[in-house]
Input
Amino acid sequence: VEIIDGTSAPTRHLGKRTYCYLMEEEPAGEKSCDLMTIMRPANQEADIHPHDDVSELIYIVKGDGEVTIDGRSWKVRGGSAYYTPRGSLMGLASTAETESVVLVVNQ
Output
């Protein structure tokens, strides 16, 4: 068992977003999900992308936005959660005036 806090977890940058991986798939395949936080800059447009091989549960920690899943859109804010099923097209736009933070579980 390994405990990782947000200050020592590995980070990756993709565009203007910062991904902090708190838990990733084990090399031996023992674990079946990834857990990460994503810090998104203010007023960032959605990047619609496929979820061909993973489903995703997202919890909005702080910020406001709009999630689009398979062409349908919903407003989200801090405290909101949503699920993206495997095989969906999805994107999350940040409409907040400050950085947004989301917690993501991929499976």
